[in-house]
Amino acid sequence: MKIFSPDCGEEYPLDTREWTCVRCGGFLEIEGVPEFNPARIEKNNASLWRYRAMLPLLTGAEPVTLGEGWTPLIAVEIGGREIFCKLDFLMPSGSFKDRGTTVLVSALKALKIDNFVEDSSGNAAASLAAYSARAGLHAQIFVPAHASPMKLAQVQVYGARLRPIEGAREKSSEASQHAVVHEGAYYASHFYNPFAIYGMCTTAWEIWEQLGSRAPDNLVLPVGHGSNFVGMYRGFSALRQRGLIEKMPRLFAVQAANVAPLARAFERGEPDATEAEPGKTIAEGIASRKPVHSAEVLRGVRETGGAVVAVSEQEIKSARETIARKGIFVEPTSATAVAALEKIADRLRDRAVTVTSLTGSGLKSQ
User: Fold this and answer.
1) Which pLDDT score, from 0 to 100, does residue 41 have?
2) Which residues contact 232 (CB under 8 A, 6 or more apart)?
3) What backbone torsions phi and psi does residue 51 show, to the nearest 5 degrees?
4) Staple partner for 21: which of 5, 95, 104, 147, CB 3.0–4.6 Å?
């Protein structure tokens, strides 16, 4: 395996400190990852590592795992319609981020990298702190000073070095990237790192298995920088390429109306999102003013006949209460996906299989 730029072909070692291509500025990917093969699924492994043969783990390396993945997919009646909820908040650290982190930290340990940094509004920070502790490694994590106190406390209890940064979410990214450039640290970014993205693909594969080897008709999920969306899009694309599904699910990306650069770009027919004005939202996990994966998200939405949906603060609060009355306690960011269901109700056919991705535990927020 090797790291390369699919845009210009530039190659890098697996342990490169670059997070984008120095020649063209494009994303870096991993070359040499096996294609999806259902015959190689480890059926007796009730974690996402049942797909180990399809993940970028070095030969002989052992996964750094806390049993993440294979989360429940349950039917819930919402608005008079049966919806399937993928309970990805039931992860070891309380969020879907564990999917990317287990693959990333497994790779870092195999590559003998111990000095790494991350920036996050909370969930990715907590996830990296947890898996670093599991692996016996040390992480330095830059977070917005205004992030949820519960999430910051979670980072600290795992033993990671917490670096609160004042100002907008983007300031944390700038600080962590400064550490990479000037301190030689490895950037363990949950939205730039290609190892992490492969972990996100496993959600699509689990949903496919849990639905009886079929794709849902519709998939609705919260989107900030877009790593979860990209993982779903690529995961289902891998299934389609192997002829395991007839068509892609329609992908619906959901944003908080107060910070909705993707929704604005979608409405205008633009191929990429421009930076949004600063705004506040209770859905802090998706408050990304300039989503890193915006171009791929918009392409995926349009290719599958989906949409980008923006929901108000009141709609988010109401949706959180609605899903809680079904026994499911999620953070406001996750509730955006539930809030979007009413807005796209006229696009959901009777008897269509619709899946919502519930990404973060309600225990992480007020």
Assistant:
1) 98
2) 200, 201, 203, 204, 219, 221, 251, 357
3) -100, 25
4) 5
pLDDT at 59: 85
Distance CA 43, CA 197 (A): 23
How far apart CA 176 and CA 189 sit, in angstroms, is 9
Q: What is the DSSP string of 34-57?
A: PPP-GGG--TT--SGGGGGGGS--
The most distant pair of C-alpha atoms in the chain lies apart, rounded to whole Å, by: 56
pLDDT interval class at 364 (50, 70, 90) = confident
Q: Which two tokens stand for residue 168?
A: 């907008």
Alpha carbons within 13 A on the beta-carbon side of 314: 0
What six digits make up the tokens of 240? 């389609």
366 compared with 184, residue with greater pLDDT: 184
206 within 8 A of 73, measured Cβ to Cβ:
yes
Structure tokens that stand for 39 in this block: 């015959």
